[in-house]
Protein: Ribosome assembly RNA-binding protein YhbY
Amino acid sequence: MLTGKQKRFLRSKAHHLTPIFQVGKGGVNENMIKQINDALEARELLKVSVLQNCEDDKDEVANDLTKGARAELVQVIGNTIVLYKESRENKQLELPQ
Structure:
């Protein structure tokens, strides 16, 4: 689990990122979770945007993605979800203690 300090650090790092995934009408599926997992392994921190036509609630989408990708939810802000998962081979971010 992330501490408040670590979440603040990650939010500041995520601020300038643009969302690289969009959850739309189809909602969250296996393929999307696999792609997000791969992207998290490469980047550690990413944004997912929830489109207007998505039938699921954004908090529900965030929950599905964190469970599916075994990632940490940093924040849900507006229709954007920020996810973090420590990379096994490509570690870039050093979290504060």
The mean pLDDT is 94. The longest strand covers residues 45-50. The chain has one domain: 4-84. DSSP finds three helices and four strands in the chain.
